[in-house]
Every structure is written in C-alpha cells, then in structure tokens.
Design goal:
Elements: H1 3-14, H2 17-20, H3 23-81, H4 110-123
Helix pairs in contact: 1-3
Length: 154
C-alpha cells in the first residue's frame, strides 16, 4: 500500500470517532503500517540501485571523455611526427595508411614540432639550423655525426 493511501485511511479513521476506539481497526492500521515499513527496504534497495546506476553512468561518461581526450592527444602527436593517427604505421590492414604511416611516413607538422622542441633544445645548449636543399650531412674530424645545430662553446 502506498504512503498516500495509508495517510488517507488514517485521516478517515481520525474523522470518525467510532472507529478511533475500535480494537479491530487499530489492529488493521497497525498491520498496514508494519507492511508499509517493511516495503521501505525494497524502496531503499531500489534507491540504492538507482544511485549505483547514476554513479556508473557518470563513470562511463568520464571514461568516454578521457578516451576522447586521449584520442585527440594521439592525433596531435601523429600529425606532429607525420605518422598515421590510427596505427602509427603498425597495421598493414589500416584503412588510412596501409601500414605505411610510421613516423615521418606522412607529412609532419614541422612548424609545430619546432615550436614545441626549440625551447627544450635551447635549455640543452642546442639550436636548430636549416639544411640547404641539396646538401648532405658530413662528418666532422672525429668521425662523429654532429647533433642538430649543436652549439660549440669552444
């Protein structure tokens, strides 16, 4: 029995003085109230399940948001290094690059890469110098390949 119906019944009994002192009516009301109280654990269980469902939905929504952010980050780095944002060139069946999209396999965002890397290189005492279009890298007198734009502090 729902709470509203029980309250209505109690009001009707209260409005009829002959029923207020009736032991059978009192026993029936007590029985109904006990049943109503016993129904609450089920309501509590239902509420707990609803709360758990809401919590799981929030968790799923957060997981989805984190996954989308991670996918955005992967695409950013793939574009930055000229790699396939789906497989990084590791999947011959990739519909985007057919396994040919490893780092520098596609057009890299060199300008963005330089913008990000230059401050770190400067901290290390290095710089970036453009290479002439038809030049080749030569080795110095120690048979060592020079690092990118290495600053010689000699």
């Amino acid at each position: 029995m729902n709470v509203e119906l029980l309250n209505l019944l109690q009001q009707q009994i209260a409005n009829r003085p002959g029923l207020q002192n009736n032991p059978q009516m009192a026993a029936m009301m007590q029985s109904l109230m006990q049943k109503q109280q016993q129904a609450h654990p089920e309501d509590d269980r239902q509420n707990a399940l609803q709360q758990q469902f809401k919590k799981m939905k929030r968790s799923r929504d957060q997981w989805k948001k984190n996954t989308e952010e991670l996918a955005h980050t992967v695409r950013f780095f793939a574009d930055l290094f000229g790699a396939c944002s789906i497989c990084f060139g590791d999947d011959a069946d990739c519909p985007h690059c057919h396994g040919q999209g490893g780092i520098s396999g596609l057009k890299a965002d060199v300008e963005q890469l330089v913008t990000l890397v230059l401050p770190i290189l400067k901290q290390a005492g290095l710089t970036i110098q453009p290479v002439a279009p038809n030049s080749t890298t030569t080795q110095d007198h120690n048979d060592r390949v020079p690092t990118i734009g290495e600053n010689n502090h000699a």
